[in-house]
Amino acid sequence: MPFANHLAARVLRPSALAFAVGMTLASSAAFAQSNTTGSIFGQVASHEGNAVVITSDTGLTRTVQVDENGRYRFNSLPAGKYSVSLQNDGKTVSSRDNILVTISAGSEVSFGAGSALAKNLEGVQVIASSLPAIDVSSVDTRTVLTSEQLSKIPVARGIGAAALLAPGVVENSSYSTNGFGNIPSFGGSASSENAYYINGYAVTNPLTSLGSTTLPFDAIDQEQVLTGGYGAEFGRSTGGVINIVTKRGSNQWHGGAYVIWRPEGLRANPRNNYFPNTGYYPKTDGTLYWYRNKNQYTYTTYGAYVSGPLIKDKLFFYLAGEQNKQNGNSVASFSNSTTAAATGWNSYGYKLPRWTAKVDWNITDQHILELTGVSDKVEYDSSRYPYSYTTLAKSNTKTGGVYTKDGGNLYIAKYTGYITDDLTISALYGRQTLEHVQKPFGYVPNCPFINTAANHSTVPGVAYPSCQETAVSGILLPGSNDKTHGYRLDIEYRLGEHDLRFGMDDQTAESLTGSAFAGGYSWVYNWQADPSVAIDSGSGVASPASAGGYGTQGYFVSRAYNTQAANVKTEQAAQFIEDRWQISDRWFMQIGLRNEQFTNFNGDGKPYARQRHQLAPRIGATWDVFGDSTLKVFANAGRYHLAMPNNVAVRGASGSLITNEYFTYTGVDSSGNPTGLTAVAVDKSKGRTCPGGNAVSTNLECGQSRDPRLVAAKGLKAHFQDEYIAGMEQQLSSTYNWGAKLTYRNLRSAIDDTCAQVLGGECFIFNPGVKNTFVTLNPDGSYKETTYTNAQLGFPKLKRQYYALDMFIEHQMADRWYGRIDYTFSRSYGNTEGQLASDLDTGAGGQADVSTTQDWDLPQLMVGANGVLPNDRTHQLKAFGYFQLTPEWRFGGNALVQSGRPRNCTSHYPTADAGLYSGAAYWFCGLSGSGTAPGSTGYKAPAADYAFSPRGSHGRAPWSYSLNLNAAYTPNWLDNKLTFQMDIFNVLNRQVATTYNFRYETSARNTPNSLYLRELNVSEPRYFRFTVRYDF
Predict the structure, then answer these.
(1) Is pLDDT at 118 greater than 60 in this prediction?
(2) Residue 313 half-sphere exposure, CB side, CA atoms within 13 Å?
(3) H-type helices in 601-646, by residue range?
(4) C-alpha radius of gyration, the chain, whole number
(5) C-alpha span between 240 and 242 (Å, rounded)
(6) 866 partner at 20 to 30 Å CA-CA among 105, 282, 471, 1004?
(7) Averaged over 428-439, what is the pLDDT?
(8) What is the CATH number of domain 3-138?
(9) Sequence-separated (6 or more) residues with CB below 8 Å from residue 482
(10) pLDDT value at position 820?
């Protein structure tokens, strides 16, 4: 099967090329299609025929008349293979077989004069089904991967991994989910800004927008990766779109089974991780931090499928299922915490049962009904044991662990009606339920969680036991789940040279979610090098020494609460209109307008944010330069909106309790609770203290229910981006195409939260970088509106810009081989990543509070924030393909070379201003001193090398080089039904850090971070994957 790239280039055999030029095949290219269908179109020579008939592999038959200009088209065809026949007064005069229809694309099939020429074209058209024409009516940029293509390229079995084959798509190692893997970033956007579809229904994670539902990899028929310029039917994405169409049954019976094995014995050892050489900690600098050599696992997959007709030409089914299992063990990173050491060895197992079922009913040739079911679940079972870094050995006494289960089922129904040759109507309805279960080992409900994870946090010679046996700090709210339901309606009408589309879609996402510390709260033990420096000067928390006890040595403890729980909801609706206009034989234009509405509800079911009448124009044009589909020039421009996911309401609009109350202590009891507590004084004038005590909260999340009018800025605008693309594609020869395109993206509006000092201790969701109006409560219970300019808030203008040059050359499948090379030069620059904050990754992933990141919380956090953004990879070179050496032997390869992620250095702000966060999160580098005025009590001068350190100013992570190879043997003696395949990933075994810990100081001022510049997210070592499959 073919690989259809984002411009879908076609090759004609020389015997037909002159004829094709003469007929200006592209003149019939205007067509419409949805996100699950495609088109067949073409031109018929004068007097050769007056009707065209198509027949699918399910027996679906449609007939259209050839118009007065010799053109015909079939819109809204399910993806798959078709035969196309030309008829003259009811008699077939020519036919073409194996015409492949791909998602949102057109397959061109034209008929010439004379039987001899028609015979020559017969061969061309069969090849054209595998090598589509340059689609001169396509204004978007896409990559379409077929199931056969995916089976021949050495790529990880996941929809996110497959998307990385597309130009401009990079892997963001700071965000991943079980079952999905690392989540890609498209065109400089945050990883949460993508949209995912299965058979036309949106399956993006409803809680966080990170990742999506997935399915058995073998159930994918086509994966479309849209990287820009998509039409008005797509929305809710400012990154990219991954659009999956599943396999379906046909009139032929098919089935098979497969086993996939990734043995640990052939996997290279992960390289160990070491403390960086900071110069401040001679006892640990350069020593072993994480013994990764013992991180081992074996991965197996068992799968089977069957498909065929239940009633020939009428009713068909496809059923696939697979069980993925991963069993292994891992070692926790080094810590002087006795609690961490007690659970440092993890023996775990994953089970990922998945199935996909599809039923297609050709009620008549004019009416089709499709039913889809998908199940995607992830089970994780962990058992933890003590581990000693002294002996590098584990104990056999189980001390911890957890069982989790996530996922659920998805059901989709779609109707398509071909009412007339010119009118098509389709309607879709979907529903999904995802459940989340957590069962920690040894959980004691009434015992606080003891946290001694910070390095040097415990007093030498003092034991820190724990009455809370579980090692899981956060306990999931029982009954947690996510639910979505929605519908879509599309109408397509052909009017002369115009293909008009009208549509609407609506989806509701609900999440019952939340968590709290095990036992309700946690005792967090900590230490700072200088006992006289304030623990949290921004919140007014005094120094440890001021409260006596172990505080005179820098040791202190906080009673921490982090309780977030709510049943929240988001409603998203849209309407669109689009005209695909064939202006002339060589010029084509696509004009569309999308109107979107978003409403976010808090835990009380009250709306706290609404966006209405969000108009998103889309316009694109193509020029078929020579009129023969051999050179295409195209351009498009559009606006794209994105809603806030449900997680925003859980913390930002539904009454979270996130506080710390600081003490010094003189001892620890047998349950791990501190004794001899003395409260550390708090300056309440800083505006970070909760009512009735000394508990401080950065965002004043003190557990109170929030009035929805006081949550978000009045008239809050949606997150949206403008995009401009211009490019060309050219057929160089019968087998080679090349192309280039320029892309510019500009984030025009974003949503985040802020606690700017001018707001007097209040926190709001707002639009960064512009004027905002906030509603506050007067003492008498009335409401007051106050408008602040961006200058009054103290922020810079919002900036995230991405520009790129993409170039490719492709050899179509001919002469037994296929290959493609992409090169991308890009730049992602600004003061915000978008909805996420990857730069805050210190080893456990980036900040995942989507649309409520640390950015924009305070003006001081944005000083120096402008620079090269974390998803920037200046250079990317991708190459993949395969070679069919003989009918029995095939070889494939997949290579990636790219420059590294930008590096930073962050520390405390130069001055300990009121309301500042206590943390090394500011764009300065070095030891910051006390931040107080010279001569004041406890004053410490900053280090001589302490300096302003803008984002991206500390070089790059190393270049990454990845080479994957495979070989497959399909013996003739079993009728080519049995396949043995071996894939080798990361052949060169280059294990490269993709990012680093950028925090120069700890959460305490003037205290060096012993983990500054520790390597993070090192690429996976070399491993082998063996596949045995039988297909009939």
Answers:
(1) no
(2) 6
(3) none
(4) 30
(5) 7
(6) 1004
(7) 97
(8) 2.60.40.1120
(9) 205, 206, 207, 432, 433, 434, 436, 509, 510, 511, 512, 513, 646
(10) 97
Beta carbons of 42 and 70 less than 8 angstroms apart: no
SS3 state of residue 151: helix
Q: Is the pLDDT of residue 15 over 60?
A: no
The vertex-22 CA angle with 85 and 731, nearest 5°, equals: 90
Q: Which amino acid is at 442?
A: G
| Average pLDDT rounded to a whole number, residues 375-400 | 94
For residue 575, the one-letter residue type is: Q
SS (H, E, C) 964-1023: EEEEEECCHHHCCCEEEEEEEECCCCCCCEEEECCECECCCCCCECCCCCCEEEECCCCE
Angle at 648 between CA 857 and CA 746, to 5 degrees: 65
The number of residues making up the chain comes to: 1032
Name the average pLDDT for the chain. 90
Nearest to 908 by CA among 900, 899, 917: 917
Q: Find residue 347's DSSP bridge partners.
A: 329, 383
Residues of the chain with CATH 2.170.130.10: 143-249
For 184, the enclosing helix (H) or strand (E) is strand 181-186
Identify the helix (H) or strand (E) that includes residue 929: none
Summarize the chain as % helix, strand, coil (round to 5). Answer: 10, 50, 40
The pair of three-digit structure tokens given for residue 567, joined into one six-digit string: 């049943």
The two structure tokens encoding residue 596? 């979107």
CB-CB contact of 540 with 683 (8 Å): yes
CA-nearest of 158, 154, 302 to 890 is 154
Residues 696-736: pLDDT tens digits? 998 788 988 789 999 999 999 999 999 999 999 999 998 99
Q: Could you give the C-alpha distances from 840 to 729, 847, 1010, in angstroms and in order?
A: 40, 6, 16
Residue 650, SS3 per DSSP: helix
Quote the CA–CA distance of 736 and 998 in Å, as a whole number. 45
One-letter amino acid identity for 1027? T
Q: Of 49, 90, 91, 53, nearest to 70 (Cα)?
A: 49
Contact 167, 227 (CB under 8 A): yes
Is beta strand 764-766 parallel, antiparallel or unpaired with respect to 772-777?
Answer: unpaired
Report how far residue 458's alpha carbon sits from residue 451's, in angstroms, rounded to the nearest whole number: 10
Is the pLDDT reported for residue 12 higher than 60?
A: no
SS3 838: helix
Q: Where in the chain is the domain with CATH 2.60.40.1120?
A: 3-138
544 alpha-carbon distance from chain centroid: 43
Q: What is the model's pLDDT at position 57?
A: 84
Question: Do 192 and 837 touch, CB atoms closer than 8 A?
Answer: no
Select from 3.40.640.10, 2.170.130.10, 3.40.980.10, 2.40.110.10 the CATH code of 143-249. Answer: 2.170.130.10
Q: How far does Cα 517 stand from its chain's mean position?
A: 28
Beta-bridged to residue 300, according to DSSP, are 261, 325
Tell me how far apart the terminal alpha carbons of the chain are, to the nearest angstrom. Answer: 17
